[in-house]
Amino acid sequence: MKSPAQRHYERVSAEEAAASAAPGESLAGASAYELMLAKLATDRRRLKSIASIERKIAVKRAELLPEYVDYVAGALAGGRGAQDDVLTTVMIWRVDAGDYAGALDIARYALAHRMTLPDQYDRPLATAIAEEFAEAALSAFKKGGADIGVTAAQLVEVAQLTESADMHDQVRAKLHKALGYTAEHGGDTPAALDHLRRALELDSRVGVKQDIARLEKASIATGGDVGRT
Question: Mean pLDDT by 10-residue block, N- to C-terminus, for the chain (229 residues)?
């Protein structure tokens, strides 16, 4: 376990490194960044050696991600928007581990500065954020239970952050589907119908037709307004 002095040093070093380069520039050569890149490469190799997805997530949550907390805090505090593959990778890992608030902390910064994901992710940053959050929510709904992990407010923020981004309609449809299910979970049937209908407009195979019919039927039965048709 790191001492308070080590944690402080790591945070300050990350802040200084992040402040050394502006948007469009590289952090390559900044010692704190290079050290974390080397650690990231080691951690990726470790994850690659694990076959179980469940085990990979457990390792990220309990062992790997805590080691990046101080670097992330410093990078966000001092950053001027230079590309940072450590930050964007940790963002995805935080979603995997269920730390949605922590992932959004990075997403806000990364999107504001038009950062990209490392090549192995093969997706634009905004697409990945929208899809990762949507899939996390939809997976939780599929499993059932009262706690879906991702909150309605977090999904709404993801939608707002990625609203102007160009992405495949199927991904945005998935996000609206998740927003619709979350709205229904919160008792807001009109909002749920709006999102589910929008999801269907974007992707006819998104799998919400029965949900829309069910909600419309329930709304009519209770004297509610089913909205547009």
Answer: 80 84 77 91 97 97 96 92 94 96 97 93 95 94 77 95 97 98 93 97 97 91 59
Pairwise CA distance, residues 183 & 141, whole Å: 12
| Contact of 149 with 98, CB cutoff 8 Å | yes
Query: How far apart are alpha carbons 82 and 113 in whole angstroms?
Result: 8
Residue ranges and CATH numbers for the domains of the chain are 1-122 (no CATH), 131-223 (1.25.40.10)
What is d(CA 134, CA 159) in angstroms, rounded to the nearest whole number? Answer: 10
Q: Tokens in use for 193?
A: 């119908």
Nearest to 60, CA basis, from 21, 20, 91, 23: 91
